[in-house]
């Protein structure tokens, strides 16, 4: 009895990976073994960097809040401590947006906590 192989599924798997490798340079886009390795590595990077993006944005927001607070004579840690003490529950994303795009509103928040 001849050996049974599922060529349809095999071809579909390979097509899926080669489609993901579209746009890569050289053999990475059209040679199966090279493309598979490149796509696997790209998936690892994307998984890792979805987590790193959150850290990066938080650091950016902290930097912006610090710059805005220092214009009004407070450090970042003093400002955040006073926010907590006054039970003002604005997250860092909103505070950073206020500091950048709406300085009057940020100043009002600083005056409220002083």
From TrEMBL:
GO terms for molecular function: rRNA binding; structural constituent of ribosome. It comes from the Bacteria. Keywords: Ribonucleoprotein, Ribosomal protein, RNA-binding, rRNA-binding. SUPFAM superfamilies: Ribosomal protein L20. The keyword Transmembrane helix does not apply. One of its GO terms (cellular component) is ribonucleoprotein complex. InterPro entries: Ribosomal_bL20, RIBOSOMAL_L20_CS, Ribosomal_protein_bL20_C. Pfam families: Ribosomal_L20. PROSITE patterns: RIBOSOMAL_L20. One of its GO terms (biological process) is translation. Belongs to the bacterial ribosomal protein bL20 family. Binds directly to 23S ribosomal RNA and is necessary for the in vitro assembly process of the 50S ribosomal subunit. It is not involved in the protein synthesizing functions of that subunit. NCBIfam families: rplT_bact. PANTHER family: 39S RIBOSOMAL PROTEIN L20. This is Large ribosomal subunit protein bL20. The gene is rplT.
